UniProtKB/TrEMBL annotation:
<keyword id="KW-0175">Coiled coil</keyword>
<comment type="subunit">
    <text>Heterooligomer composed of large and small subunits.</text>
</comment>
<keyword id="KW-0963">Cytoplasm</keyword>
<dbReference type="GO" id="GO:0008855">
    <property type="term" value="F:exodeoxyribonuclease VII activity"/>
</dbReference>
<dbReference type="GO" id="GO:0005829">
    <property type="term" value="C:cytosol"/>
</dbReference>
<keyword id="KW-0378">Hydrolase</keyword>
<keyword id="KW-0540">Nuclease</keyword>
<comment type="function">
    <text>Bidirectionally degrades single-stranded DNA into large acid-insoluble oligonucleotides, which are then degraded further into small acid-soluble oligonucleotides.</text>
</comment>
<dbReference type="GO" id="GO:0006308">
    <property type="term" value="P:DNA catabolic process"/>
</dbReference>
<dbReference type="InterPro" id="IPR037004">
    <property type="entry name" value="Exonuc_VII_ssu_sf"/>
</dbReference>
<dbReference type="InterPro" id="IPR003761">
    <property type="entry name" value="Exonuc_VII_S"/>
</dbReference>
<dbReference type="Pfam" id="PF02609">
    <property type="entry name" value="Exonuc_VII_S"/>
</dbReference>
<feature type="coiled-coil region">
    <location>
        <begin position="44"/>
        <end position="71"/>
    </location>
</feature>
<keyword id="KW-0269">Exonuclease</keyword>
<protein>
    <recommendedName>
        <fullName>Exodeoxyribonuclease 7 small subunit</fullName>
        <ecNumber>3.1.11.6</ecNumber>
    </recommendedName>
</protein>
<comment type="similarity">
    <text>Belongs to the XseB family.</text>
</comment>
<dbReference type="GO" id="GO:0009318">
    <property type="term" value="C:exodeoxyribonuclease VII complex"/>
</dbReference>
Length: 85
């Protein structure tokens, strides 16, 4: 599991799953209400960076997924980018 205080330089190396786990850990800590204000602000900033990393990874995955197009007989006739209708 990724450390809660992942240095920013290591964010680009995190897998989606590790970034999401770290983000969930930060959310739990913030929701507990037991974190001092200054630490809450720092955690929020870390969480925002992790959210961006997760979004980037999801967008990269979407870009790699293709939607197959088929003709009336069910034969594959081509592919188009995910979300292009």
């Amino acid at each position: 599991m990724a450390e809660e205080n992942t240095p920013q330089k290591d964010l680009s190396q995190l897998s989606f799953e590790d970034a999401l786990r770290a983000l969930e850990s930060i959310v739990r800590r913030l929701e507990s209400g037991d974190v001092p204000l200054d630490e809450s602000i720092s955690l929020y900033a870390q969480g925002e960076e992790l959210r961006k990393r997760c979004t980037e990874r999801l967008q990269a995955a979407e870009a790699r997924i293709s939607k197959l197009t088929v003709d009336a007989g069910g034969a594959v006739t081509g592919a188009q980018p995910f979300g292009a209708d």
